[in-house]
From TrEMBL:
It comes from Streptomyces flavochromogenes. The lineage of its organism: Bacteria, Bacillati, Actinomycetota, Actinomycetes, Kitasatosporales. Residues 292-422 form the ATP-dependent DNA ligase family profile domain. The keyword Cell division applies. GO terms for molecular function: DNA ligase (ATP) activity. Keywords: ATP-binding, Cell cycle, Cell division, DNA damage, DNA recombination, DNA repair, DNA replication, Ligase, Magnesium, Metal-binding, Nucleotide-binding. This is Probable DNA ligase. InterPro entries: ATP-dep_DNA_ligase, DNA_ligae_ATP-dep_bac/arc, DNA_ligase_ATP-dep, DNA_ligase_ATP-dep_C, DNA_ligase_ATP-dep_cent, DNA_ligase_ATP-dep_CS, DNA_ligase_ATP-dep_N, DNA_ligase_N_sf. Its cofactor is Mg(2+). The keyword Glycoprotein does not apply. ATP binds at E212, R219, R234, E263, F304, R382, K388.
Amino acid sequence: MLLARVAEVSREVAAVSARSRKIRLLAELFAEAEPEESPLVIAYLSGRLPQGRIGVGWSVLKEVVPPAVPPAERPGLTLGRVNETMTELAAVSGAGSRAERTRLVHALFAAATDDEQQLLLRLLTGEVRQGALDAVALEGVAQAATVPAAELRRAVMLEGSLPPVAQAVLAEGATALDRFTLRVGNPVQPMLAHTAASVTEAIGALGPCVVEEKLDGIRVQVHRRGDDVRVHTRSLDDITDRLPEVVATARAVPADGFILDGEVIALDPATGRPVSFQSIASRVGSRTDVAGAHATLPLTAVFFDVLAADGEGLIDRPGQERHEVLAGLLPASQRVRRLVVADPADPAQVEAAERFFTDTLARGHEGALVKALDAPYVAGRRGRTWLKVKPVHTLDLVVLAVERGHGRRTGLLSNLHLGARAADGGFVMLGKTFKGLSDDMLRWQTERLGELAVEDDGFTVRVRPELVVEIAYDGLQASTRYPGGVTLRFARVLRHRPDKRASEADTVEDIIGRS
Ligand SMILES: Nc1ncnc2c1ncn2[C@@H]1O[C@H](COP(=O)(O)OP(=O)(O)OP(=O)(O)O)[C@@H](O)[C@H]1O
């Protein structure tokens, strides 16, 4: 398939507003593509490169930004050729790499029509303006392959991503869905939570439920098959090698064929209180000296769910039943603390749940999760059956650009431009902040944002909109300076969230609606 066709549909999809029309356009495109091309079609439509980071920054892009390279008159670039070039780009390293990257990108742009150049540029700068494309693409695939969207969605959650499932159903139809079941060893998208204002409100919404402590660490999904143990993050990255102590914990469980869901945290040996999220994140993030990092900050895995045990999938069982299985696998010290509220109409039980929440905060944890006792594990969804309660309300925003620091912060990337997701798939800037950033956080973001840079005027560095930051704020105020007409009051950074994707950031509508 030609890239021109994807560029054309990408434009059409952005231009129509009816969801059903977008799905129809995508279904036609998937029907035209060869099944094995569908993973690339999905990636390019949603602005992702299968190669991940390919090291093409502003210094290379400025050589090709239109009109620097005259567009080709006729389309001839195939998806395969684009993919090959991206793979070559990802492999470039060492001396002369910038010249080599420029040469490759230049050749690609010279072969592209105007339309294609625009799409390539959007791919390389990470700027995608297609609201919620992943969900629409899934329905487009379902329509093209004539399989029910709900069944396809479930297969995708269990497989971890759409492209391999799309390729299979487009080639073989519905029968291929049977292959994508819960398998120990294959990470599934974790279940997520909605927000509730208080524990009492959450209990009122859920009925019989359990209140659990919300630990402030890194989510882990641990798979064990015989001696093979795998540890995955919330975004399904494999971090097994970085967490030897979690591997040891999983090996010590007197059972096999299981998937555990939990959080890694660290406890201060002197006080027994949890250490800061930032320290845990930097420990989990360090790939080089794992043994040294382990010795400095040993982590503890604490689990709250089990998705499979003895090789048998448990996700459709009620939460309480899964918990009983979990209690059979792990000692209480490796499970989150919890309190069952069997009768939500009993004020004493609700009061006890509120006390559990305050006590959890007093012990240094982040908040609580309230979960319906009969809730199945809905992979990949923000279920209405898991509600989180936190004392401070925070926003997840995306870094759009960053200003170079001065004075004490010279040489560091400091003042962050913060964006919320907009309905069209782009981002709306809501304000700037350099508050709340510790020296460690500044160093970390300088490195990470340097990798994401796409444009630099010597003062402000524009970046691929990929880094999520968790922001505390004191409310919104009207502002004519920002495109949404509002800005954040006293925004401060609580933490970087490299474990979250930009597509998971808060939307402008939500933020305005909530204030
Ligand atoms: N007992 C628990 N049950 C479920 N999740 C828990 C628990 N304790 C801590 N967590 C963490 O809280 C998160 C649940 O909240 P949510 O689904 O909103 O994810 P999130 O967006 O990562 O949350 P947050 O930004 O509040 O950490 C999980 O991803 C997990 O990392």
